[in-house]
Design a protein that fits this description.
Elements (H helix, E strand, L loop, with lengths): L1 H10 L3 E9 L2 E7 L2 H18 L14 H5 L6 H4 L2
Length: 83
């Protein structure tokens, strides 16, 4: 996870919001930024992670609905969402 997260933030202008141990040895990383930057970061993270272990999935949610942060607050405050 550290290798992949490091590659992600170095590859594009994204913010590493959080990571979560989901169980069974799986870890999820959450990054924010514009869609192209997030895609580039995910590609870099996938490549770096695959050198160390197995990457199960990579998914980009482009322009999520504002209600997503209300239900699942992933490091994006409602104040900054209004800006």
């Amino acid at each position: 996870m550290v290798e992949a997260a490091d590659a992600m933030v170095k590859a594009a202008r994204v913010e590493l919001v959080s990571y979560e141990k989901t169980g069974g040895g799986y870890i999820t990383a959450v990054v924010r930024g514009d869609v192209a930057a997030v895609r580039a970061a995910c590609d870099a993270g996938r490549t770096a992670g695959a050198r160390i272990g197995d990457v199960v999935a990579v998914h980009v949610i482009a322009r999520p609905h504002g209600s997503v942060d209300t239900v699942i607050p992933l490091g994006h405050s409602s104040d900054s969402a209004k800006k």
